Amino acid sequence: MENNFTPHGYTEELNAAGVPLSMHEWLSEMGVGGLVKKMGIVFGEMTPQFMTATMPVEGNTQVAGLLHGGAHLVMAETLGSFAAAMHAGPERHVVGIEIGATHHRGIKSGLVTGTATAIHLGRTLATHEVVMTDSQGRKLSTARITNLILDN
């Protein structure tokens, strides 16, 4: 099968965010989004069922020097939405309809790893649990995101 894919200007952005080459065509017209770039999120594994990424604490802290609670939610929404969109496929798109998180411990430096695991991948809804951990594997927060799947 011949691949006629031509990049649309986001190749550097996709590479910097760790997006596998197999995903470039899918993201070639939109990139990963401005907030993903600003937060320093870099993807690891990317499937609808399981997705990982890292994010630095530096630059994403609140006034007391801890990783901002909203940064946890940005990571959760990023991972859950990308995974749901992969599940939905090219003829459909997703919109987040619910997200919530419990913060278990703070972190002041280093790298946070987010791991999204599918809870439900249905025809109209996709729900993922996203766990953020520190470099020692300690749980920082647990979030749940649900996306509505719509036809284009």
From TrEMBL:
Query: What is the name of the protein in this document?
Result: Hotdog fold thioesterase
Q: What is the organism of origin for this protein?
A: Arthrobacter cryoconiti
The record's listing under NCBIfam families reads:
unchar_dom_1
Quote the InterPro entries the UniProt record gives.
Answer: HotDog_dom_sf, PAAI_dom, Thioestr_dom
**UniProtKB keywords:** Hydrolase
State the family named in the UniProt similarity comment for this chain. Answer: Belongs to the thioesterase PaaI family.
Pinpoint the Thioesterase domain residues.
65-139
One Pfam family, please name it. Answer: 4HBT
